[in-house]
Amino acid sequence: MPTRHTVTRDGTELVYWAWPGVGPPTLLLHGIGNYGRYWDLFADAVSRRLMLVAPDARGHGESGRPKDGYAPADFTADALAVLDALRIERAAVVGHSMGGLHSINLAARHPERVRALVIVDASPEPLPAGAERAQRLLTGRPARFRDRGEARAYLERTSPGYPDSVYENRLAFAFREENGELVWRSDPAALERIMSGRMPTEDRWDALATIACPTLVVRGTRSNVLSEDVAQQMVQTLANGRLMELDAGHNVPLDRPRELADATVVLAK
After folding, report:
1. Which helix H or strand E contains 169, and what residues bound it?
2. Which helix (H) or strand (E) holds 173?
3. pLDDT value at position 199?
4. What's the angle, vertex CA 45, arms to CA 42 and CA 47, rounded to 5?
5. Does a structural domain hold residue 61?
6. Which CATH number goes with the domain that contains 10?
7. Domain encompassing residue 12
8. Helices and strands (DSSP H and E) totals, the chain
9. pTM above threshold 0.85
10. Total structural domains in the chain?
11. pLDDT average per 10 residues of sequence, the chain (269 residues)
């Protein structure tokens, strides 16, 4: 089980989770609306072959919810604060979805801190279907649920087909109790600011082009976010990139944790 830690940057408390391991330190950045413990299945598959660190992004999980400060540069600074708190000079970085875009910024702006990069189903040019689905789920979700049963039914309806462990993980870490009901940990106002403050597409491609470290682009073959053509273009843009496609949807860390973990261990070492 991971241990819970905190670090404060510019008045915002950031919670992060650490799993012990014998291999190089590896920073895990989750997607919008998720949380650090989203990586539990991946961490189980890594099985101590790497030292893992997974922050709850600001406005998510147990981290603070400031009124502003949700630009990409803020998330990059938060990631550096977590590494600094652990005295980690260089780390492998794995980012999924929004976290993948933040990992690109981190590697582009601070190459001395990133030894290897895994970009998991994150796209400089997301497919319209995936972007629209994320917008709909994050802005149109119910604000509260009467009990765990109602919350789980919602999760199963909107994201069907996962094993029991995935739904139990989400119930444990995506929600908190308030007045006898369950409410989301992720801040609706923060989600709105993140979605409205994303980097321009051209800037995302420019950032990719500056990355020199070994980089693995991972795409789910059933993804509604990252197309095959864009994934190929990402690899061609990177100085040292390659592509791995897995039989998965957008949530590759949940659909194929073992394959993703094994590939990450090889790249990180």
Report:
1. helix 164-173
2. helix 164-173
3. 87
4. 115
5. yes
6. 3.40.50.1820
7. 3-126+200-268
8. 11, 11
9. yes
10. 1
11. 97 98 97 98 98 99 97 98 98 98 98 99 94 88 97 97 97 97 97 89 97 99 98 98 98 98 97
C-alpha closest to that of 173 among 159, 162, 186, 161: 186
CB within 8 A of 163, min separation 6: which ones? none
Q: Which residues contact 168 (CB under 8 A, 6 or more apart)?
A: none
- What does the pLDDT look like over 219-237, one tens digit per residue? 999 999 999 999 999 999 9
Q: Is residue 155 part of a domain?
A: no
Residue in this structure with the two tokens 């990059």, named with its chain if needed: 76
Amino acid at 207: A
Residue 121: the pLDDT is 99
CA–CA separation, 83 vs 221, rounded Å? Answer: 32
Rg of the chain over all Cα atoms, to the nearest angstrom? 17
In a domain, 178, yes or no: no
Element (H, E) at 176: strand 175-178
Element housing 83 (H / E): helix 72-85
And the tokens for 154?
């919602």
Residues facing residue 133 across a β-bridge? none
Which residue from 22, 19, 21, 18 is spatially nearest to 6, judged by alpha carbons?
A: 18
